[in-house]
UniProtKB/TrEMBL annotation:
<keyword id="KW-0521">NADP</keyword>
<feature type="site" description="Influences the redox potential of the prosthetic heme and FAD groups">
    <location>
        <position position="84"/>
    </location>
</feature>
<dbReference type="GO" id="GO:0009636">
    <property type="term" value="P:response to toxic substance"/>
</dbReference>
<keyword id="KW-0813">Transport</keyword>
<keyword id="KW-0216">Detoxification</keyword>
<feature type="region of interest" description="Reductase">
    <location>
        <begin position="149"/>
        <end position="403"/>
    </location>
</feature>
<dbReference type="GO" id="GO:0046872">
    <property type="term" value="F:metal ion binding"/>
</dbReference>
<feature type="binding site">
    <location>
        <position position="190"/>
    </location>
    <ligand>
        <name>FAD</name>
    </ligand>
</feature>
<dbReference type="GO" id="GO:0008941">
    <property type="term" value="F:nitric oxide dioxygenase NAD(P)H activity"/>
</dbReference>
<keyword id="KW-0520">NAD</keyword>
<keyword id="KW-0560">Oxidoreductase</keyword>
<feature type="site" description="Involved in heme-bound ligand stabilization and O-O bond activation">
    <location>
        <position position="29"/>
    </location>
</feature>
<dbReference type="GO" id="GO:0071949">
    <property type="term" value="F:FAD binding"/>
</dbReference>
<feature type="active site" description="Charge relay system">
    <location>
        <position position="137"/>
    </location>
</feature>
<feature type="active site" description="Charge relay system">
    <location>
        <position position="95"/>
    </location>
</feature>
<feature type="binding site">
    <location>
        <begin position="395"/>
        <end position="398"/>
    </location>
    <ligand>
        <name>FAD</name>
    </ligand>
</feature>
<comment type="similarity">
    <text>In the C-terminal section; belongs to the flavoprotein pyridine nucleotide cytochrome reductase family.</text>
</comment>
């Protein structure tokens, strides 16, 4: 427990941190990667380039500073980050490295304003915050390694099948190379894939949601090929699409993540996805069909058109069941799509449509997709009176705020 004086200093520096937070974390990464280039094997370079990681870390540091005398209050956030850290194999010995460089960066950016007293308080506070992460993550490592079929770190998986699902999305069916048991997971969870690509200086790690129900002898991921001018071309997704073949080996960490379907409930479920955000929703849909066949589920998917719409046949097959209803939204359908009645609604999901078509009362809502899609859905649901505890969502990359 920190002494009252330290707590006071930490809390009084929150506004300063908020002002300089991003400059501090940007400097922190420069310093840390300068001294520990090996950590570039773990961090996502694309997120770094976009500054997304800086923002995620900065906002967590403010939050932690604000709640330094009551860190229990931010435990849900710590757990969410802890899942990501566990999936990346971040260990206790990494924390002092981050701490040292964070302190150096604070000193660098704040200069004389960062007195010895302030630096001393921050050193103590970082230790307290780091201890909470380390404790939460230790439980997660223990659970991942000791459950049936579980493991520690990265395990070799064979690409058993590679299936093209649309012009941009391809599924990979992964089986453990050791042919031993495979841990179960909760629908909505993701795995990390670690790739050592020839010609690349560092390894790359990416998270992909599992897109099939648990309980099979494989894990399935469905990967979108990332291209476009505003994001650094997805080195990993393009490599998976173009280079990885059936029979190849991929390094995979055990399933992680707290965006999961609550199967202890039997309330109606509405699953909404945009683009490749459908992957965790597929896992949730298939799980409901398999283990809660009486539970009502509405699957709403928005895609540009039929060419980029993955896993449609699978959903259409499930939608024949009494408890499943599916709707497809295309914002720019092709002639082919029109001719073959491939979609239900042209355009985007709207508040009015949701109000008319979806039984809002009692339902739990899960959604994933591009940020503008998620922002609209979130505001529609709030508008329609859905309470916060019934709204569940996940971002593709580093978490951000929807408001
Ligand atoms: C991700 C905070 C310690 C490595 C994250 C995220 C946050 C965060 C907010 C984003 C989570 C998300 O995407 O959902 C923190 C805080 C720490 C800490 C507050 C200290 C108390 C560490 C340490 C390491 C580390 C010690 C290893 C050296 C990473 C990596 C990611 C990550 C590699 C994923 C980033 C990416 O791939 O872009 N962390 N972290 N973190 N953290 Fe930490």
């Amino acid at each position: 427990m920190l002494d009252p004086k330290t707590i006071e200093i930490i809390k009084s520096t929150v506004p300063v941190l908020e002002k300089h937070g991003e400059a501090i974390t940007t400097r922190f990464y420069q310093l840390m990667f300068g001294n520990h280039p090996e950590l570039l094997n773990v961090f996502n370079h694309a997120n770094q380039k976009q500054g997304r990681q800086q923002k995620a870390l900065a906002s967590t540091v403010y939050a932690a500073a604000m709640y330094i005398d009551n860190l229990e209050a931010i435990l849900p956030v710590v757990k969410q980050i802890g899942h990501k850290h566990r999936s990346l194999n971040i260990k206790p010995e990494h924390y002092p490295i981050v701490g040292k460089h964070l302190l150096l960066a604070i000193k660098d950016v704040l200069g004389d304003a960062a007195t010895d007293e302030i630096m001393d308080a921050w050193e103590k506070a970082y230790q307290v915050i780091a201890d909470v992460f380390i404790r939460v993550e230790a439980e997660m490592y223990d659970q991942a390694a000791n459950q049936k079929g579980g493991w520690d770190g990265f395990r070799n998986f064979v690409v058993d099948r590679k299936v093209v699902e649309s012009d941009v999305i391809t599924s990979f069916y992964l089986k453990p190379e050791d042919q031993k048991e495979l841990a179960t997971f909760q629908p909505g969870q993701y795995i990390s894939i670690l790739l050592d690509i020839e010609g690349e200086e560092y390894t790359h790690i990416r998270q992909y949601s599992l897109s099939d129900a648990p309980g099979k002898d494989y894990y399935r991921i469905s990967v979108k090929r990332e291209t476009g001018s505003d994001i650094p071309d997805g080195i990993v997704s393009n490599y998976l699409h173009d280079q990885v073949k059936e029979g190849d080996i991929l390094k995979v960490s055990a399933p992680a993540g707290d965006f999961v379907l609550d199967t202890t409930k039997d309330t109606p479920v509405v699953l909404l996805s945009g683009g490749v955000g459908l992957t965790p929703m597929m896992s949730m849909l298939k799980t409901i069909v398999e283990i809660q066949p009486e539970r009502k589920v509405t699957f709403i998917h928005a895609a540009q058109n039929g060419n980029v719409h993955a896993l449609r046949d699978e959903v259409e097959e499930l939608a024949k069941l009494d408890n499943v209803t599916a709707y497809f939204f295309y914002d720019s359908p092709t002639e082919e799509d029109r001719k073959n009645n491939r979609f239900d609604v042209e355009g985007y999901v709207t508040r009015e449509w949701l109000k008319e078509k979806v039984e809002i009362e009692d339902a739990d809502f899960y959604f994933c997709g591009p940020v503008p899609f998620m922002k609209s859905i979130n505001s529609f649901l709030i508008d329609l009176g859905v309470s916060e505890e019934k709204i569940h969502y996940e971002f593709f990359g580093p978490m951000a705020s929807l408001v």
